[in-house]
Amino acid sequence: MKKKLVSILLCTAMVATLAVGCGSGNDSGSDSNTDSGSSTAASDDAGDDDADSGSEGGGSGTYAIVTKSAGNPFNEKTADGFQEVIEAAGGTAIVKHPEAATADAQVSVIQSLISQGVDSICIAANDENALQAALEEAMDAGIKVCCEDSKTNPDSRQVFVNQAGVQEIGQALMDAVLDISGGEGQWAVLSATSQAANQNAWIDAMKEVMEGDDKYSKLELVEVAYGDDEPQKSTDQTQALLAKYPDLKVICAPTTVGINAAAKVLQDEKSSVKLTGLGLPSEMAEYIGDDDDHSCPYMYLWNPIDLGRLGAYTSMALVDGTITGAEGDTFTAGDMGDYEIVAADDGGTEMILGAPFKFDASNIDEWKDVY
Amino acid sequence: MKENKSILKKITDSREASLFIVLIVLCVVISLRSPSFMTLKSISDMLKNNAVIMIMTLGMLGVLLIGGIDISIASTLAFSGMSVGMLMKYSVVQNTFLLFLIAIGIGALCGLLVGLIISKGKVLPIIATMGFMYIYRGLAYIIANSQWASAENLGTFKDFALGSVLGMNNVIIVMIICYIIFFIVMKWTKIGRMVYAVGSNREAAQISGINTSNVELMVYTVMGTLAGLCGALAVSIYSSAQPNMLYGREMDVIAACVIGGVSMTGGRGSVAGALLGSLILAIIAKALPLVGIEAIAQNTVKGVIILVVIVLNVITQRMMDKNNLKGREM
User: Fold this and answer.
1) Domain boundaries A166-301, corresponding CATH code
2) What is the ipTM of this complex?
3) pTM over the 0.80 mark
4) What integer pLDDT is reported at residue A103 of this predicted model?
5) Is residue B153 in some structural domain?
6) Residues of B in contact with A72 (CB under 8 A)
7) Do A20 and B138 touch (CB under 8 A)?
8) What share of chain B is helix, strand, coil (3-state, %, to 5)?
9) Torsion angle, CA of B208/B214/B219/B223, rounded to 10 degrees?
């Protein structure tokens, strides 16, 4: 009796899993066909382009970009920027969205690109190490490999197009604090976790900037609070900052969850404390504005379109031999200006997109639908 | 002398009373270090920010009372919250009341499924709910489809958590209503007594004519229903719906119950205990950043406070049992 029950249960579980699996597969499939019109268009293009590149040979070059997954608005914008630059230069752009945001899905995409014989692959890695075998195979086949958005380990790439220069972010945020506070007063940082490497690097960069120039001398950093990227804890921390420091003028939250939670607290309480930091335009649209009804005058994040465009220029420079991805190489990225390849923290090389992009009342309406 | 003894006896007679004393001591210590803690606004902020955990503690009380456990609740919450967020984002449903009903319905269905597997399929609760933890969280990601609903999309829905009746925030009112209903049901109704009966001695309950598997099914369904309600509440409170909402927070809910003196093996625990337990957790969360403890040390301090409270609680329980035995000997 018991055995029977167990076997029935196991069967049910298996069927249920299958049903769930199928459901999800169908969902994502149908969604990427319906919702994200551009992604289907892009993959249709890719199909046509395969035939083209086969007949034309390497005349104008075939450049591929592999995003993290389908249906992510940030990735789509990056791919758009990439495509625009490549096509303007007369090349052929292949945009590939893996089925899922996993390294596995990217590996099979990379392998199909290798067999298509593309000239370069620009990839936003879903895993730092798992793509190494596939990408090394690509490089052995003469394909140039660069990363954008999130990097692979140094062995799997030639250069990384870094959207977030630590120094640039520290400078931009510090200037925002100086501007919003009116030049003096108390300010605090609301970070993610105390171990988050990027957060700590940005906070340290801000401190360095603050100590490096006299104009920041009247600013007092009273506390670095950690909200652990949880709305509830970030809310607690923001409320605690308000209670502890009645003279607080500015909170700077360089994390998307933290800035969102803090913006909500400040705006609901109609607090005089203002907010800046790094946040997603779509999440923050409600809170950005110059008047007293909005808690955040302006904030920063990187521009995904420019990221894609720089990825395209880098791919082309790698393919035509202008750069090899070695430290000290320089090249001109069209109207974006000159870029220099520098050493990255992980032992590889990178180039930095530039100062982060500013979102304020004048452009938030246009960006909130983008990502 | 005699009076003193009776007061002492009263305190040691009830775990809730000892918890209440811990609560007051905590509050006094905190307000000494940070005077702004004991203001009406600060307390209201605290209740609102912890309402979700406090409401789910009630459901967990029922589950723990029959000797079960449910670790899928945070995932159920994310699934129902994400569904509500997506319905708002794509303007399918805009009515706040209807959205709450949908969230509660999703939660109830999720809970029912968990309950069926556990009560009719006789699967261990921790195993079954672990499976559902992944399934529901996965479903939340699937319906989110790498989108999220933010303040802008949530229109009037987010106003619910801002509104108030008679000076009391809507969210806190919902929580109080839940607590009142549970208090009455658990204390004075047949259903409530049945839950206790199943938890204290399942065989005895069965022999006395209680359908134990139906009681089991019921508590998990109620748990799911509350988690569904909390999904909608969380979206309204933080005006943001993301598939990783409250990731890992089911442990806080279980901790709140345990602090409140609910036994993990079933049969023991009360609504008052659940309230006090979740209040103590809420106060700790609110106070740690206020009193100026180094950020890195906050989690350690939180753990120490929880352990101290539980040890105190266990000691009280022992004294209670001893006193009861003494009474019998005499």
Assistant:
1) 3.40.50.2300
2) 0.79
3) no
4) 84
5) yes
6) 146
7) yes
8) 80, 0, 20
9) 180
